[in-house]
Amino acid sequence: MSAPQKGEKIYYMRGTMSPEARIIAVGGGKGGVGKSFFSSGLGIFLANLGYNTLLVDLDLGAANLHTCLGEEPGENSISDFLSGRVSSLAELARPTRYRNLRLIGGSNDPLDMANINDLHKSQIMSSLFHLKADFIILDLSAGTHSTTLDFFLMASHQILTVTPDPSSIENAYRFIKSAFFRKIKRYEFQLNLTNLIGDLMANKSQHGIRSPADLLYFVSKKDSKNGELLAHLMSTMNIQIVLNQVRTTSEIALGPSIESVCRKYFGINAQFLGHLDYDNAVWQSLRKKRHLLLEYPHSRVYAQLMGIARTLAGPRKEKKAIS
Questions:
Q1: Which of 105, 213, 306, 310 is the most buried (most CB within 10 A)?
Q2: Sheet with 53-58, edge to edge strand ranges
């Protein structure tokens, strides 16, 4: 199933909403998998292709996207929006050294920003939907907090960054399952699934429910109509996998393997977008406060990021080179 294009209607918890931009959410099951590096690199390439691109640092409480871009901390942040000091997120968007690329940072957010309430979360989501851009890239916090999952699920492109180590892969599967069950939680009343799913999940060990596919099986067994509704909801998920910090050729095979597990055992659509090699130049460029794409434009990672960006953007004539 292909991701929605700009202007295409997407069905959410309440009615139909049409975002102003194509929203890309970048999540990860654990920290240290390269979410911010990937988000910033993707933003640079999309901007370089001529797209009006906006990066939003939603790693609330540990924001560092400005550092990955080689930018200084901004004077304003998302906390200014939530406190009412500015009326919209658009007022926080500031230009970067890259043409066509703006940033909404979180560097000045207080420590308790990581635990925003539902009202603040809804305010951010609503404002994001009204931002005008070609692409909006959300750099999310690590883990499976409900706020992180909701930001992830609101996007038309849902990208999960994974590294080849076993703990990262295990956490990636946990993230995917958590995202699915969070989505079900948002829709269960609307789809008349509340009582049925509540009963099944309360006794999931007894029923042997370990994955979304297991839940679909038991829902369909008890109520075929609700089973069809749940199957349709599952079909709307399309997780896109990026394998980062790859050291060997054999590790690349983990990407298609994760895609296969999601489809075969979880019943969830997945797509392996590509991989990025492990490269010492990444941390060396960060120390110099210059993104890898500027400091080492002839690296393999440069070409790999470019390929992923082009896949997400789709066919379009390029306009300029990075300068």
A1: 105
A2: 94-95, 101-104, 53-58, 135-140, 22-28, 157-162, 238-246, 269-277
